[in-house]
Amino acid sequence: MLPTPPQTPTRLPGTVWQRKLGDTELSYFLPSRTEGVNDMYLCIDFTAPRDLVTDERVLAIWAILRTKHPLLAAEVCMQEGEYDSASFRYVAAQDAHEELARARENLRISVQTKEEVILDYLNGPRLLSKEQPAYLLFGQRDLEQAEFHFCLCTTHYLGDGMALHKTANEFFSLLGEGMCDAELFKLLDHEWTERYSTTEDHRDSPIPQPLEEKLPPLPAQSFARYAARVDYENLQRKTIGGHVMPRKKHGPRRTTVPTVPFSAEETGRALKKCKKNGVTISHAIFALCNMVWLGIKPAGGEDLPTMMYAAANLRSYFSSIEESHFYLAVTYFNIMLPSFIPRDLTPTQTLWLRSQSVKRQMNAVVGSKMYVSRARITASQRASQAKTWAAEDDARDAGESLPPSPPPTRPAHAPPKVPSNALIGLSMLGNLDAIYAHKAFPDLQLHGLTTGSRQRGGAMLLFAYTFAGKLWLSLGYDENGFERVIVQKFWQGLLDSVRENLL
Questions:
Q1: Where along the chain is composition biased (Pro residues) (predicted)?
Q2: What is the pLDDT of residues 432-485, one digit of tens each?
């Protein structure tokens, strides 16, 4: 049993903070309302001494994290049909006892395997909601070997992958310190007291500001804003993609996540080979996806590029301020590569040339002087589109007939619009061992990691990352939404190409 905490200095009748969702947060919140589209998860396998991983210690650490990162316990309030009214509302616990009780309501400790936990989360009834945006699923898989899994689940409008990994590292750091139950509860009480025991009316809100508030402001001059808009529209016209993974509906959405690790020795060889060619593994994975697709795609389409989309983190553009790290800070970019294999180059030469092209495109994205303005406009556009779709969904749910969408207008002499379709989304997480302080918790051996999200029907997202010294590839996709043979060929072809070209 957890001990009684030390007496806290002040017990408040209730402290509430509220702020409206930013554009990026809103673009994730609205489509998540019914089926939990984009609800995230991070599952980590680890071994540890049993006396370090008791139910009481897991609960106390989860309560500490919820206290430090208020969005994990913040509900979203919205007036019906008034999408811009959507706001985070955080009600602080009145003391550490209450925080512990709340954490218990958002924690499940079971004997399910990691695979069972993930598939239930992805395909079963939605676990999260606007009132319950974060949940910790924790399990002990093997009583003999003390094998555990940690699965942190949150809505995407709360945060991003970086937030998940930073929070997981905090969890393992506290778990590995070896504090007794009383010491953990004392820390919980300290974290609560430091943030919520003051009675001052002017205390700062603990809710992190939205990314749109954190980004450097646009110049006030109207010309600068006009230039930003023109730049964005020009960029959209250059975003061309003529290839998609063939879709075929076999039944209700069912997401599967095949995940393959490569050994530490193989990973070392891949890193060396990529470095020798002036690229990273992430650059090479984009190029390999392109080349594998060209080997299995239906005939035609060589005149249009293959486009893939990815997310970029914006945290490096924010001023350094003391606040919770659990917030959303992403924007998006596209990579375009040719849809043919040159006859005068070997496949190996083509791979490295295209990897270098990916590198140049990525550098051009993050190095552009217009990067921040593009991120702002992208967020605004995504929020606007999400509100349009939300209105359509709400009308349909209410049984209202929807007017037909007006045909797009185009000037009489305008050239025909080129397609802008993505083959696949890629989440290149990089070296996660730079986030996890493995040496700080030597009694814990973190050895497996899988991450992803609940998806729409017909969605596909490839993850690549290094963790525990190994390269991992993970493909999350709707197995009932695609031509199965094509997807199997793509996935197996990618694995074979990594082994053939990088290892």
A1: 403-417
A2: 999 999 999 999 999 999 999 999 999 999 999 999 999 999 999 999 999 999
Tokens standing for residue 310: 């990815």
In the numeric block, which tokens belong to residue 307? 């486009």
Helices (H) and strands (E) in the chain, counts: 13, 16
Quote the pTM value.
Answer: 0.93
Fold of 15-198: Chloramphenicol Acetyltransferase (3.30.559)
Closest CA to 267 of 284, 242, 245: 284
- DSSP secondary structure string, 431-466? EGGGTS-GGG-TT-EEEEEEEEE---TT-EEEEEEE
Distance CA 121, CA 138 (A): 13
How wide is the angle at C-alpha 136 spanned by C-alphas 62 and 194, nearest 5°?
Answer: 25
244-282: per-residue pLDDT in tens? 999 999 999 999 999 999 999 999 999 999 999 999 999
In angstroms, the CA 102 to CA 128 distance is 15
> Domain-by-domain residue ranges, the chain?
15-198, 214-394+418-501
